[in-house]
Design goal:
Length: 179
């Protein structure tokens, strides 16, 4: 009976050993496939997550670029508006300054013309009188023109366009005949 029990135990061990080797072989094969499938799933999930992140980053970059362009455009508009305002203010100031300056120059030009005639009437040397007389004639002519323009500018009924025209005419004359 001992032999029989030993024989049964031996068969059990062999049977169990055989089943385990088959199961372990199947298990080893199944584990490799399962691991590969898991890695494939993980790669797919990772690829999806990465593509979502990339899309999110691209969208945020696009939004930032749009806001920066909008800010840049707004700044350019503000700068051009400021420049045009500054030009208008400068033109207004220049126009307002030229009117009083021209009005002030006209009386001083009259005084200069009177002084020149007084100086001319009392020459000390005859040679100097001849040399000065040509210059004095030009000076008297300029003085006379400046007086006329001063009288015209003194008219309160002048329109700004007429006033500006007279001032421009005076400037051009003095530039061309002054030297």
């Amino acid at each position: 009976m001992k032999k029989f029990i030993v024989f049964c135990i031996a068969l059990l061990m062999i049977g169990i050993g055989m089943t385990r080797t088959i199961n372990t072989a199947d298990a080893a094969f199944s584990k490799d496939e399962a691991v590969r499938e898991r890695f494939a799933l993980k790669r797919e999930r990772l690829a999806e997550v990465v593509s979502k992140k990339i899309a999110h980053v691209e969208n945020s970059i696009k939004k930032k670029l749009k806001t920066q362009e909008a800010k840049r455009d707004q700044k350019q508009k503000e700068e051009t508006a400021k420049k045009t305002e500054a030009k208008k203010v400068e033109e207004d100031e220049a126009f307002n300054q030229t009117i009083p300056q021209e009005a002030e120059k006209a009386p001083s030009a009259t005084q200069e013309g009177i002084e020149e005639t007084q100086i001319q009437s009392t020459p000390e040397n005859v040679d100097e009188a001849d040399a000065v007389s040509g210059a004095s004639a030009n000076g008297q002519e300029r003085g006379q023109k400046n007086r006329e323009w001063g009288e015209q500018l003194g008219d309160p009924n002048l329109t700004p366009e007429e006033r500006q025209g007279i001032i421009q005419e005076k400037k051009n004359y003095n530039r061309n005949n002054h030297g």
